[in-house]
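For the sake of transparency, this paper describes our internal protein records without simplification. The record that follows is passed on verbatim for readers who wish to inspect the format:
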Amino acid sequence: MSAALARVARFGDGLLCAAPQSWAGPLFETVARSWEAAGRSGEPRNVAQVDVALGPPAVVDAARSSMPAQYEFTGDGDRMAAGLPTSPEAVRGAAKAFADLGVDALVRHCWATDPDQVDRLADLGL
């Protein structure tokens, strides 16, 4: 992975990271160090993605059941589904954790197909 992050630092504008907050910090730090070592000016743009599902139990269950297939290649699909933020408090907590990492932007990826999730996210005021 370090070779990939070095390429991000040499050729990219920054890192879009869909990893959990506990993993994202070290990845962003590696890109920043590699960016500086490559003699790049400024700083890389750090964008984080947090997977979410907001709504009644059926919406959350549908989201959790669809996640393992997406993350199968990592071997962590079940763990990713289990850690899915599914309450306003959990989504706010994830957003704060990424803000504490200093990300430039946070993408909230809705896992359920219920379009009302967009309104539920908007109601959080994040």
